[in-house]
Amino acid sequence: MKSMFVTVNTTSFDELIAAARSPPALQALQSRGYQKLVLQAGRGSLPQPQPQPSSSPAAAVEAFRFKDSLAEELQSADLVISHTGAGSCLETLENGKPLIVVINDKLMNHQLELAKQLHRDGCVLYCNCSTLVETMQSMNLSALKPFPPGQPEKFASFLNKVLGLQ
Questions:
Q1: How many Å apart are CA 88 and CA 129, to the nearest integer?
Q2: Local confidence band at 148 (pLDDT 50, 70, 90 cut-offs)
Q3: How far, in Å, CA of 148 to CA of 90, rounded?
Q4: pLDDT averaged over the chain?
Q5: Of 119, 121, 95, 108, nearest to 7 (Cα)?
Q6: How many Cβ atoms are within 10 Å of 43's Cβ, its own excluded?
Q7: How many beta carbons lie within 10 A of that of residue 120, not counting itself?
């Protein structure tokens, strides 16, 4: 069963949760072959089940606030939609999952810069809540590049040099 995971991690981003479970988003999800939507609401409002029109097959929707780890959800997801927190983005990309990052327009922080850089690198798609459905409808996930693995040994070598340990 093809699934999409939406995460806000420990933050509150009710607009993203609402946008991802709106009828147009669910329709875009189903038109792309996704049958399951998992929402992680963090400190925000936990969404209530919505009645689905009988004319369309309903995607299974699950929602929760927190878990000790999101590893299981990341592993089973075919697509991740996330707030633009650096930790959430990196964890998703390190798991090799296609990622759409959604900028919270109400915050003035690093999110736009991070989203633009990861997009320039070809690793993510990015949007805001008002353009999420359009992004889901037009996304070409096969064009995304794998995130390059970290090279901790280079960083360790650099630190050793700087600290005079080499």
A1: 17
A2: confident
A3: 11
A4: 90
A5: 95
A6: 13
A7: 9
- Tokens 């999409």 sit at which residue? 4
Q: Six-digit token pair at 118?
A: 């990861």
| Structure tokens given for 10 | 């420990």
pLDDT of residue 53: 54
Q: Cβ distance 42 to 63 under 8 Å?
A: no
Beta bridge partners of 101: 82, 126
Mean pLDDT confidence for 23-28: 95
Query: Which residue bears the tokens 């992680």?
Result: 40
Run of H or E including 14: helix 14-20
Between CA 162 and CA 72 the distance in angstroms is: 39
Which of 130 and 165 is assigned the larger pLDDT?
A: 130
